Amino acid sequence: MIRAARDGDALLLTIDRPDRANSLTGAMLSDLIGHVSRAEDLRLLILTGAGSRVFSAGADLDEARAGLATSPLWENLSGAIAALPCLTVAALNGTLAGGAMGMALACDIRIAVPGASFFYPVARLGFLPQPSDPLRLAALVGPARAKLLLAGGAKLDAAEALAFGLIDRIAEDPVAAARDLAPGTAPHVAAIKAMVPATP
Q1: Nearest Cα to 28, choosing from 50, 1, 64?
Q2: Distance from C-alpha of 41 to C-alpha of 15, rounded to nearest angstrom
Q3: More confident residue, 65 or 160
Q4: How far apart are CA 21 and CA 187, in angstroms?
Q5: Considering the entire predicted model, what is its pTM?
């Protein structure tokens, strides 16, 4: 399930399925898209996962085999996040894997716990990444490192991800660190964000 907690002009969305490594079903993706699409007048949107080990392992395996792995829902979600005028932060409480990488790449900022790991095993599983993911990934880490992660199947720890530029900060409590961001008003944050060139 997806838990939504709004505090004034800040919205926290939590992927809450820790017994299944916060893997995402089609219904959960649709729920996330709905929350993001309905977000209005926000200063800050934070995405996180329940538990202390995994942000999200990507698609639920049963639903992935039934077609979720290639569903347009992933691209719809990342596009909706990227289009928001507010500051968007992926507060990565643990491992980020597979299709869940797209929503984190679409955020403005990524903050991870020290024990987080990162991998996108599309080549190993015989799938292609969603169309916008390689573009956003390459904009952050460069073309060679994007190929290392996508075609090479490399797995990064938090220190490597920070050095690569995949994440922007390491914090013991990424949600608390995210809440400290965007101190201005929603229009002010949106105006500043609009002045910074966007990733693809």
Answers
A1: 1
A2: 22
A3: 160
A4: 36
A5: 0.95
Q: Which of 78, 46, 80 is nearest to 181 (CA)?
A: 46
* Cβ(200)–Cβ(73) below 8 Å: no
Range list of H helices, 91-195 = 101-106, 122-125, 132-141, 143-150, 158-164, 174-179, 186-195
Question: Which residues lie below 8 Å from residue 168, measured CB to CB, with a gap of 6+?
Answer: 109, 110, 111, 162
pLDDT of residue 183: 80
Is residue 178 scored above 90 in pLDDT? yes
Q: Which tokens go with 61? A: 């395996």
- pLDDT tens, residue by residue, 180-197: 997 889 999 999 999 998
| Cβ-based neighbour number of residue 16 at 10 Å | 15
Tell me the CA end-to-end span of the chain in Å, nearest whole number: 29
| Model pLDDT, residue 125 | 79
